[in-house]
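ARCHIVE CARD
Drawer: 12
Card no.: 0347
Subject: one protein chain, sequence and derived structure
Cross-reference: see card 0346
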Amino acid sequence: MGNPFPGMNPYLEDPALWGGVHHLLISAMHQQLNQRLPEGYIALVEERIYLETGEAYQQYVPDVLVARTRAEASQATPAHAAVADPPVRIELHDPITEPFLQIVSVRNKPRTLVAVIEALSPANKTLHAEGRRRYLQKQRDLLQSTAHLLEIDLLHYGEHTVFLPREALRRERAAWDYLIALHRAGEGLHTGEVWFVNLPERLPRVCVPLLPEDPAVVLDLQAAIDAVYLQGRYHELLDYSAEPPAPLSDESRAWVRQHLHAQGIL
């Protein structure tokens, strides 16, 4: 069974599932790009690795071990026995790994970074999280570099994160569900191209620029998310009788129920 929604499936936004969805999405886009890129270009999967601690970490990673320190209580011992000083016990989280895509030109050595494609994660959109701090620093660096940056935000929850300010976007459209933003290398920091997407709409086919002498490659985001749904067998995992985990408006929630009824799922 394929994705029952014409566009993004809001049930995939569940924070408990998003880690797997994110990895499969990066993989689907990676495969698609390498089938379409002209000779001399390669799409590569790269990873950010960092450590999160505290409440921000728990907001987007379920069932985690909370980092803590504590002094071990000394046990009663005979007066003549030596007593060890109590240690400090430290338990650390496993590092967080966030994959992203790079398009590089291999026509000359060393290879040239041409474009970076990011699918935003909850960590990137959580205030005071290490993942957000690192992402925003990388975003600033890329905006001033010779590489293009494509940001894909398929999450309703979290802070506004794409490089274009929310106020500027709202002058073009008052509201949207999903957002894709492209910054072309060499343009101003607040100059870009945007695809606004509402829940009932198909995810767009977006252009990814290459070097000036070559035409852009087209990335079909709907085909990618549909591949994620099939590969992850989410039709067996998602509970469509429950409310969507995404913070939708009342109007959008009503549309979801109506659409699922029309598909014979409810």
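Annotation on reverse: The chain has one domain: 10-69+85-262. The two ends are 15 Å apart (CA to CA).
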